[in-house]
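User: I'm putting together a teaching handout on how multi-component assemblies are represented. Below are the sequence lines for each component of a complex, exactly as they appear in our records. Could you produce the 3D structure of the whole assembly as structure tokens, so the students can see both representations side by side? Please keep the chain order the same as the input.
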Amino acid sequence: MSWVEWMGEILEPSADEGELYLHIGTPDVGHERQHWHFELMHVVQDKTQPERNMDNERVLTVDISDLLFQVDDWRQLAHREIRADAAWHEAHEYSGEHGWFIESQVRVGVMHQEGEEPRPSGGWHHWLAHDFILRIGARDGHHFSCELDAWMIPEKEYTREKPESPEEVAVFAAGPPNLRMICRLRFDGGSIRLPRVPDPLAEARRRLRKQLRLEEFFEAKVNWNPRWTPDHAGLVQLPGGRSSVSFRTRPYDPPASLAESGG
Amino acid sequence: MARAAHFWQPRGQRMVYYKNEPWLLLHGVSYFSARITPKTRKWEDICWSLDMQFISGSPIWRRVQMRPRIVISLSSFQVPGPSWKDLGRVNYWSEAETEMDAFKSGFLNVSFWYHQPEEEDWDGLIGCNWRVVRRDAGWLTLEMAVCGEGATLPPAAGEKTVVLIDGTEETAPAPEPDEAFWRGNTALYLLEAVPFGIVHVLVPRNARDVEAHAIARARELLGVGEPEHVEVQDYFNRKKPIETLQNEVHVALHFHGHHTT
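Assistant: Of course. Below is the structure of the complete assembly, with chains in the same order as your input.
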């Protein structure tokens, strides 16, 4: 279930669920090791149309690049609140394993149909925010209740040439939020990177149990690290080298919007 | 505001002072590396480098695509022993006694980037003060200080001479320089942990097994173990060959988890 108020308009509720994905890095990369990524696709079907397709759907996506917290047990996600003001960002942001700056940013994508106001051309339009409040509530299996308030800025206005002043940065959540969202949030799966080990699946199981208290997972798949061929013509996987193991917390279940359309 | 401490380094021990920004070390592009060519016969001839990059962590930059960045490169320094673990004993802190000592500490390049490389603060500076203060497995905590004009660093031994009330002189432990000292007396000061990262080996193309040859050479000269990842690149045998001065096969042995294929 998903409920969204976007720019003052309450969209029709949908059966969609938010999804949480976890990526765990190896200990030898020298930074925080858990990356929690949030995403929701809220799809509203125009029921006056006989057929369901992209042309008569309203689609709004919400994703948060990284929730920037570390837990010893995935159940500790319950009853967490992030109040993402400037001090919180500064205390939690860091450099990832490949030199990327890891920050927590809300990104909203809205698909506009051709001719639809306010954009004459169809396609995706994006908004960004650093200011947000995320509340994760009680747990029910792999699901959590979840609320998000965010102060979104159109992407073109968001990016600036010059830095903000300390006074601008200090202002948090000015006015009412223009994105409010309530949804069921599912810890859906993720991946864990591993050093060179003889049996990545067994090692992934051991580490997920130890680091996350995750006792059971499904559809595990080993992805060996690739490397370039000496002539740089293509990438080849290196069995026996480093690897990552992807997993799901439950067998694949297509999203409600796809299930309804038979996708 | 203090950032969360990282597991490999005690809280409060990481710091970088430069242009009054709160700098964050960029992982993956910051590491020690060594280069072995077919002409390298002994460990003293190995060419060592240290590359580090930092990005501003200040929230004032959050809406600017390109945050300010420092790029530090220290090249051609000598390590005092035949093992990569001897990186943990590098000490070029005290003032160089001879010009040769100054050369041994390497050539320092520091660039400050904001959109473009706006300025190069030091290009090829010789005789930089730096030392490794700690090694934890493959991670090396290094301290580096580049003095401002007219400033000098405290002695490495941490001792100073004091004159007692009766006129006699004694040596006493000098207090550890604090944050105010480093901010006031250095143009750049850093205390950071970086990994022993990559050994580049140039392998003659007639080697039977290029990869095995590279690992054997690195093991012989640096005492390394099994690498975490190996990249083999033959720049001559490409659709668009890249002509290099040496017609060897380039093998990069990665000893940390950051390789970015």
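A couple of points students might notice: Chain B touches chain A through 50 residues (CB under 8 Å). The helical segments of chain B are 99-104, 179-185, 210-222.
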